[in-house]
Design brief:
five-stranded mixed sheet, alpha+beta
């Protein structure tokens, strides 16, 4: 499976997208609807209405990458959030691609302590 760098930011467009959209249309969607820069070090994830396909748009410094995955008989567990844009970690993106419902998975909260004693 293709692995992404852990330092990347991942933004998921929660609403369904017309999957005839290519790199140009998706980059315009990132810029205008999501109000983000499509040419930064981030991954932009889009899903279709049936949630059986995803597209990932990425900029590598001199050109766009467009990756697509189609499921034959299953559906992706899409994040159900009130906001238009959902932010994920790269690990959560891998879970989404592999079919894990990321809304059901909970981690221990990160704790920051000033001292040990």
């Amino acid at each position: 499976m293709f692995r992404f760098d852990e330092n990347l930011k991942v933004f998921v467009h929660r609403d369904a997208v017309d999957f005839r959209f290519g790199m140009n249309s998706l980059s315009i969607l990132v810029e205008q609807a999501m109000r983000l820069n499509p040419m930064d070090s981030s991954l932009y994830v889009f899903g279709n209405k049936r949630r059986d396909r995803i597209k990932i748009l990425a900029w590598d410094g001199n050109g766009f990458w467009l990756m697509m995955k189609r499921l034959e008989s299953d559906h992706f567990a899409w994040p159900d959030n009130e906001t238009k844009i959902v932010t994920l970690s790269v690990e959560q993106l891998h879970w989404l691609i592999e079919g894990i419902d990321i809304t059901a998975v909970q981690r221990h909260p990160k704790r920051n302590y000033a001292r040990v004693s």
